[in-house]
Amino acid sequence: MDYRARQKRLWQLLEEKRLDSLLVTHLPNVRYLCGFSGSAGVLLASPSGSTLFTDGRYTQQARAEVERARVVITRKAALAAVGERLRRDSSRASVRVGIETEHLTVGARALLGAAARGRTRFLAASGMVEQLRRTKDSEELKLMRAAARLGSQIFERVIRKVRPGIREVEIAAELEFAARRAGAEGMSFATIVAAGPRSALPHARASVQRVPRRGFMVFDFGVILDGYCSDMTRTVHVGRPDPRSRALYAAVLEAQEAGVQAVRPQAAAGDVDRAAREVLERHKLARYFTHSTGHGVGLEIHEGPRLAKGQSEKLRDGMVVTVEPGVYVSGRGGVRIEDMVLVTAGGPQILTTASKELLTL
Ligand code: ZN
Ligand code: ZN
What we know:
alpha+beta; Creatine Amidinohydrolase; six-stranded mixed beta sheet; three-stranded antiparallel beta sheet; 10 helices; binds zinc ion
């Protein structure tokens, strides 16, 4: 990964905000800037030299992973060590340090302030690294393509094991086992498997419910490869679908494809949502579409931009977003279809390879 290029982009943002450094406390941001994937550590990122503060559990890991930052192994709380460093740095001139206010607890902020004292000024600087992370570089895209492909492959394999009477958790276990065996670090989030009436719950985690003889079944899951998340949803039908269920599925598929087609550079994020929603309005199903159309994805499962009503943020070349409209009809069931889509000047590129034909099991 090109950590040098990433940090250089950050220095530009720091300059715009007249900050001397950014204290990075959100772990995915730490990983993005210097490669450290441990579960405890903070990065003091500065054009004059970045430093990762972590503890003795990560001595070896930090040495192996971290690039473009010095590593300091500390016995005290990492933030106390950072504070002391800043106290020294600010002994000559005042220092302006950005803090990730959305990723710093009140207690940690107090600890930091007490250790720094002196002439360090802490300024709210949320979302700076997240801003950089929105567009993916070629190495990231390689991993994300591979993660999306892996998710699709295990889905197509595991789907053959679905039959009435099997419990949702068993299918979730099969997906997760297959993902691990294929080299995934884990799942992007708690796997959603929802059969029959439960498919009408947009965020139903796999439960001990058994798959009924007839009805929709929604799978929403993702795998993590080298830190990068995939995210996909497919809906299948157990038993023969009646005409109304077929129509429901066709409408969601049409909405999803309209949303995908709206994914292009310079489109507003809200335009993608509108494109999908308009199709469902035409089919008189919009009132059953109760969430937003999609989100960015990468080191985290939910990143910017948000593809929701009224979002004016412009899509850019290199962003990876999901397009996932759904309808949820209580009593009948739900349908959701989700792909990961790469924004390119040449048009939307769908990274999820699994078929979207209505599969009848
Ligand atoms: Zn999903
Ligand atoms: Zn999603």
